[in-house]
Design brief:
The chain contains three helices and ten strands, in the order H-H-H-E-E-E-E-E-E-E-E-E-E. By secondary structure, the chain is an alpha+beta fold. The strands form three sheets. Strands 3, 4, 7, 9 and 10 form a five-stranded antiparallel sheet that branches. Strands 1-2-8 form a three-stranded antiparallel sheet, with no helix packed on it. It has a two-stranded antiparallel sheet with strand order 5-6. Strand 5 and strand 6 form a beta hairpin. The longest helix has 70 residues, at 105-174. The N and C termini lie far apart (215 Å).
Length: 300
């Protein structure tokens, strides 16, 4: 039978020592796990904090962009409609960012890209508005210059019209045919001048159309109106009606001549009067636009 050694540890002591070792090991592992968990929690908290700061920064940038859009305006209806659409898009994006968790990095990155796109669109609007403003300023300046030029043109035109009108009046006055040396003689059957009423068979009026380069060239008809001592118009074989300044008149006789601006002498006979009485006879010579003159003849 084996004898017990008093210095040898018992089995119970060995088991107790193993248990203590295991417990210490577990405590060490637990401490390590606690440290690891604390580190992970710290890292996560730091990351969440950074993400929240990033989200707030993105929100502030979006609000700043919204304010920038609010300052843009244009006189162009198409651009204004596009601006309204972009403003609405920015407002909706701000609301989506506020509702999105900071830890949703995919959505945050998407919003950052949309922010960049909206900024680019805004820069394009600024370029368009500046271009339109520059064009509008140029068009305004051109329109003002055109108005001044038009006003000056109207003034010159009015002055020219007045000058032309004045010149036309002068030409109209200067172009009127005039007569001179108007006289009337009585002739007997022998074609000799007589002043005896009982021997007169016809009257002859002579006159000259004076030289006038301004007067119209071409055929001109001269009319005479002869009145007897009683004031009654004498009408002969060449009686006709003519318009004098728009008023119809009956003439005693007439004759057409070719007038080319040089002086023309002409004679007009009044035939077909049955008898003449004593007294003063008057003759008036006309064109359709002017009274050429008058003369008297005394028959005894």
């Amino acid at each position: 039978m084996e004898e017990k050694n008093p210095n040898r540890p018992s089995q119970a002591n060995l088991n107790e020592q193993k248990l203590k070792t295991t417990m210490y090991a577990m405590i060490a592992v637990a401490a390590v796990l606690a440290l690891v968990l604390a580190y992970v929690w710290y890292q996560k908290s730091s990351l969440v904090s950074e993400l929240n700061i990033e989200k707030e920064a993105l929100t502030e940038q979006m609000i700043s962009l919204q304010n920038d859009y609010a300052t843009l305006s244009s006189d162009n209806d198409k651009i204004n409609a596009q601006l309204d659409s972009s403003r609405e898009e920015v407002s909706q994006l701000i609301e989506r960012i506020k509702k999105t968790e900071a830890t949703n990095r995919a959505m945050i990155r998407k919003y950052e890209k949309e922010l960049g796109t909206l900024r680019s669109i805004m820069r394009n609007y600024i370029v368009q508005i500046d271009s339109l403003n520059t064009l509008n300023h140029k068009l305004t300046a051109d329109a003002a210059a055109a108005r001044r030029e038009a006003a000056e043109t109207r003034r010159q035109s009015e002055e020219l019209s007045k000058a032309v009108e004045s010149l036309s009046d002068q030409v109209a006055v200067g172009s009127v045919l005039k007569g001179r040396a108007i006289r009337m003689d009585a002739y007997n059957g022998s074609d000799k001048v007589t002043d005896r009423s009982s021997r007169v068979v016809r009257l002859m009026t002579t006159l000259s159309l004076v030289e006038n380069e301004l007067a119209p060239k071409g055929p001109v008809r001269v009319y005479i109106r002869v009145k007897g001592p009683d004031g009654i118009l004498l009408t002969g074989e060449d009686q006709r009606t003519f318009d004098y300044n728009g008023e119809p008149l009956i003439c005693s006789a007439s004759r057409e001549v070719d007038y080319q601006g040089k002086e023309v002498e002409l004679s007009i006979y009044l035939n077909g009067i049955s008898d003449f009485v004593k007294g003063i006879y008057t003759v008036e010579a006309y064109t359709e636009n002017n009274l050429l003159g008058s003369a008297e003849l005394m028959l005894r």
